[in-house]
Amino acid sequence: MRHLLSTLDLDRIDALSVLDTAGQMAAVNGREVKKLPALRGRTVVNLFFEDSTRTRISFEAAAKRLSADVINFSAKGSSVSKGESLKDTVQTLEAIGADAIVMRHWSSGAAQQLAESGWIKAGVVNAGDGTHEHPTQALLDAYTLREHLAKERGVPAAGLDLTGMRVVIVGDILHSRVARSNVWLLDTLGAEVIVAAPPTLLPVGIEAWPCRVTYALDEALAEGPDAVMMLRVQVERMGGAFFPSAGEYTRSWGLTADRFARLNAASGRVLGTPLVMHPGPMNRGLEICDAAADSPRNTALEQVANGVSVRMAVLHLILNHDAEGTQP
């Protein structure tokens, strides 16, 4: 794997390779000394043009646990604010010694442009580009689902895909790079995906996505999902009114206390009790109620923890792609 730009670039074998490697990294993260020498002497740059907490810190922790040197670069306070181009910025970083660049950018397609431009030789990891994709978030979500599926079946997670699982993704699909990456990856791994959202928050062309679309959340919840992934309403990306009011959105599309109680009492297609997922940060009282946010069935913090293992796997596979074998 030379770069990670999109979950569309991953076939089933590639995706399982990342998840299986992440499982090995998770074993390292469970030790007292959470360190591997796999990337000793390598430099990873976190190049973030948008604010981030979970993703940036997760990538930093992942690189350090692999013994890489880490440089955190924020566009705020840098020469970017003086008008420096992306090309000049990344070439400067490579001259300093960057072997991999983890980039979050406000422009959709920015990571692919960087990887295909020939400006640098470093590996590129897409940490979120506009409203396009966020592949490592989808991978950590799939890893979390697979761990629960393996536990339910009493089998090892290694080599296991998500065939038979039903996942409902709810809310602001239009502005969500997380939703896009998840739909492609979950389908690749064999899961059935249902997207539930108001028509105003669905992108043009969603009928070509490998998922079913419904405008009625209660109908989707009645189908026995194994996981319900609630998406943050991205008000900062909305230039106009996409729904009448916050209260109206919650009543129709929020995981309210009543919906959560019904979900908690139901059975999933393969899991005994459905999971509640959220990429964070959560808007409590808008898309998710406190009972769901604080429930042990909510995997939000588990997803964050798994994100370190998944990003360790991605960095290891990208920076050692020419090495014999890929075992950490």
Automatic annotation (TrEMBL):
Residues 2-147 form the Aspartate/ornithine carbamoyltransferase carbamoyl-P binding domain. InterPro entries: Asp/Orn_carbamoyltranf_P-bd, Asp/Orn_carbamoylTrfase, Asp/Orn_carbamoylTrfase_sf, Asp_carbamoyltransf, Asp_carbamoyltransf_Asp/Orn-bd. L-aspartate binds at residues 82, 177, 232. PROSITE patterns: CARBAMOYLTRANSFERASE. Residues 164-317 form the Aspartate/ornithine carbamoyltransferase Asp/Orn-binding domain. The keyword Transferase applies. Keywords: Pyrimidine biosynthesis, Transferase. It catalyses: carbamoyl phosphate + L-aspartate = N-carbamoyl-L-aspartate + phosphate + H(+). One of its GO terms (cellular component) is cytosol. Carbamoyl phosphate binds at residues 54-55, 104, 134, 137, 280-281. GO terms for biological process: 'de novo' pyrimidine nucleobase biosynthetic process; 'de novo' UMP biosynthetic process; amino acid metabolic process. Its EC number is 2.1.3.2. Pathway: Pyrimidine metabolism; UMP biosynthesis via de novo pathway; (S)-dihydroorotate from bicarbonate: step 2/3. It is an enzyme of class 2 (transferase). One of its GO terms (molecular function) is amino acid binding. Heterododecamer (2C3:3R2) of six catalytic PyrB chains organized as two trimers (C3), and six regulatory PyrI chains organized as three dimers (R2). HAMAP family: Asp_carb_tr. Catalyzes the condensation of carbamoyl phosphate and aspartate to form carbamoyl aspartate and inorganic phosphate, the committed step in the de novo pyrimidine nucleotide biosynthesis pathway. Belongs to the aspartate/ornithine carbamoyltransferase superfamily. ATCase family. This is Aspartate carbamoyltransferase. It comes from Micrococcus cohnii. The lineage of its organism: Bacteria, Bacillati, Actinomycetota, Actinomycetes, Micrococcales.
